[in-house]
């Protein structure tokens, strides 16, 4: 193979879709590094290691050489200080093992729009840049583990001589199970619960998100963006926003999601009704739905991320992203966001994760 990819977090929403994309290309050999609790996609070698342990990572990668490494995983901690310590170390653990081999030509890091908004515990507390967010707007004056991860990559790139890219998607739409940040699957499960119980399909977020413009990122488009940046000289040592290329308002999208599932969208009255507090007792109902329809996953906690969906849909400010930098450098891909959601829902049915 011309290119040897190591995907850090290759079974998550971004890593899995990247692995599936690269596996369709004839010139990539692909390995995924994770704890090994979730099977890797077909054709992908799974390397099990604890990313937070330098010893574990070094042992797993001893004697291995990779031309490209893609960081698509993070470990959520209780505070941002802990996020910085743990997630920064994860990057260093991998690059300290791969850098000295001399084979590494590129490292890609997936972060997100909290680069501009700040981390969850300081969310939008500073001066949020004017939308649409542009890469030249830079960092916020708050602690942020994204910045720590970037700096670890920049330092290692200078030491070992490889190139890098940073990718900042908005909310990611994609197929994965057991992922901590997965709005598409969460909304599919929520709509299924509403249909089964007869409850109205209530928008859980803020009036700003209901009425304002927003965008999203299909994990499949992000995978193509990652490969493009890893193999394009124009994208070397650059940071990029990456979104689908269309914009929408949730007050338009919500009724379309409801229509797909055959549920009644409740009129939005301007009040936030977060899912995390309303869905605490939904596990038993979901287990009954799963048993009735022969679904593959009976544990609702392995499918949903109520807290993350609440955080995204509850934002008190407009969040919109500019893609001009990628366009100017040659990445011209586009993905319809409604199609991305409906294609994800179709796949969830095929995989027997929601009823057909």
UniProtKB/TrEMBL annotation:
It holds the Pfam family PRISE. Residues 66-355 form the PRISE-like Rossmann-fold domain. It comes from the Bacteria. InterPro entries: NAD(P)-bd_dom_sf, PRISE-like_Rossmann-fold. This is NAD-dependent epimerase/dehydratase. It comes from Caballeronia telluris. The lineage of its organism: Bacteria, Pseudomonadati, Pseudomonadota, Betaproteobacteria, Burkholderiales.
């Amino acid at each position: 193979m011309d290119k040897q990819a190591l995907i850090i977090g290759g079974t998550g929403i971004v890593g899995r879709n990247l692995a599936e994309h690269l596996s369709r290309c004839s010139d990539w050999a692909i390995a995924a590094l994770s704890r090994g609790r979730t099977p890797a996609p077909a054709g992908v070698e799974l390397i099990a290691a604890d990313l937070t342990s330098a010893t574990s990572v070094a042992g797993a990668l001893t004697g291995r050489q990779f031309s490209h490494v893609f960081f698509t995983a993070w470990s959520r901690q209780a505070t941002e200080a802990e996020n910085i310590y743990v997630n920064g170390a994860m990057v260093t653990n991998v690059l300290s093992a791969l850098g000295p081999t001399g084979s590494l030509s590129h490292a890609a890091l997936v972060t997100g729009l909290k680069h501009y908004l700040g981390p969850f515990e300081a969310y939008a507390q500073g001066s949020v840049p004017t939308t649409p967010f542009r890469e030249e707007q830079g960092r916020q004056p708050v602690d942020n583990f994204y910045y720590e991860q970037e700096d670890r990559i920049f330092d290692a790139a200078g030491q070992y001589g490889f190139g890098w890219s940073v990718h900042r998607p908005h909310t990611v739409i994609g197929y994965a199970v057991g992922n901590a940040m997965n709005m598409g699957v969460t909304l599919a499960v929520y709509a299924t619960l509403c249909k089964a119980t007869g409850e109205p399909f209530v928008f859980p977020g803020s009036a700003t998100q209901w009425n304002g413009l927003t965008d999203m990122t299909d994990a499949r488009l992000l995978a193509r963006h990652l490969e493009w940046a890893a193999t394009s000289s124009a994208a070397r040592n650059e940071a990029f926003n990456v979104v689908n290329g269309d914009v929408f308002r949730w007050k338009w999208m919500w009724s379309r999601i409801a229509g797909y599932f055959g549920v009644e969208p409740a009129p939005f009255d301007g009040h936030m009704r977060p899912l995390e507090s309303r869905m605490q007792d939904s596990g038993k109902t979901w287990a009954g739905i799963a048993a009735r329809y022969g679904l593959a996953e009976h544990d609702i906690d392995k499918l949903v991320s109520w807290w993350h969906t609440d955080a995204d849909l509850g934002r008190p400010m407009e969040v919109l992203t500019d893609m001009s930098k990628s366009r100017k450098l040659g990445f011209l891909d586009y993905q319809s966001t409604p199609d991305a959601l409906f294609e994800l829902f179709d796949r969830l049915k095929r995989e027997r994760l929601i009823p057909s």
